Amino acid sequence: MRIAILAIGRQKGGPEAILVADYLARFDAVGRGLGLGPARLQEIEDKKRVGESRLLIDAIPDGAFAVALDERGKAISSRAFAGLICAKRDEGRRDMVFLVGGADGHTDALRARADRLLGFGPMVWPHMLARAMLAEQLYRAASILSGAPYHRD
Ligand SMILES: C[S@@+](CC[C@H](N)C(=O)[O-])C[C@H]1O[C@@H](n2cnc3c(N)ncnc32)[C@H](O)[C@@H]1O
């Protein structure tokens, strides 16, 4: 199952970009044996929130399970997150995508389109940091599913 982070904004270099690239490469290395990956980051740019959310919706591949990252979303444990990815893979989904908004967040239309709203708690995180946190959780999920000792409860 292919994974994509569809994210508003472009980042040229910087610590968050290094973290995203590093964790997605680690995800691919562990996920290869699990039927997971490749994982990619697709950056999308627009200047208005409505336009941004529309571009994110349009970038969702047909049949993909879409998870919108949103501070209003439900927070789940890393093991539950791994379980969600595993369940979508086992359903035979070809794509799972994660939608990260810009400075103004997502529209109601995007939230309605998403199959799941995922929160990292009620605090608002910078969108570039949210990407990096998500990439780490993807790697952690793959490690959990592979039985590697990276994750400790
Ligand atoms: C700066 S935040 C947008 C905040 C905006 N006030 C809103 O209403 O969503 C940019 C993006 O980062 C992600 N993000 C920020 N904090 C988050 C959190 N606590 N949980 C999940 N995603 C978060 C979301 O994808 C959000 O659209």
TrEMBL record:
Chief subcellular location: cytoplasm
Localization recorded for this chain is: Cytoplasm
EC id: 2.1.1.177
Q: Which molecular function terms from Gene Ontology are attached?
A: rRNA (pseudouridine-N3-)-methyltransferase activity
Give the signal sequence positions.
Answer: none
Q: Which parts of the sequence bind S-adenosyl-L-methionine?
A: L69, G101, F120, G121, P122, M123, V124, W125
Q: Which reaction does it catalyse?
A: pseudouridine(1915) in 23S rRNA + S-adenosyl-L-methionine = N(3)-methylpseudouridine(1915) in 23S rRNA + S-adenosyl-L-homocysteine + H(+)
For the keyword Methyltransferase, the answer is: yes
Q: What class of enzyme is it?
A: transferase
Q: Which UniProt keywords apply?
A: Cytoplasm, Methyltransferase, rRNA processing, S-adenosyl-L-methionine, Transferase
The entry's cellular-component GO terms read:
cytoplasm
Spell out the NCBIfam families in the cross-references. Answer: PRK00103.2-2, PRK00103.2-3
Q: State what this protein does.
A: Specifically methylates the pseudouridine at position 1915 (m3Psi1915) in 23S rRNA.
What PANTHER family does the database record attribute to this sequence?
Answer: METHYLTRANSFERASE, RIBOSOMAL RNA LARGE SUBUNIT METHYLTRANSFERASE H
What protein family is recorded?
Answer: Belongs to the RNA methyltransferase RlmH family.
Q: How does it assemble?
A: Homodimer.
State the name under which the record lists this protein. Ribosomal RNA large subunit methyltransferase H
The taxonomy runs: Bacteria, Pseudomonadati, Pseudomonadota, Alphaproteobacteria, Rhodobacterales
Q: Which gene encodes it?
A: rlmH
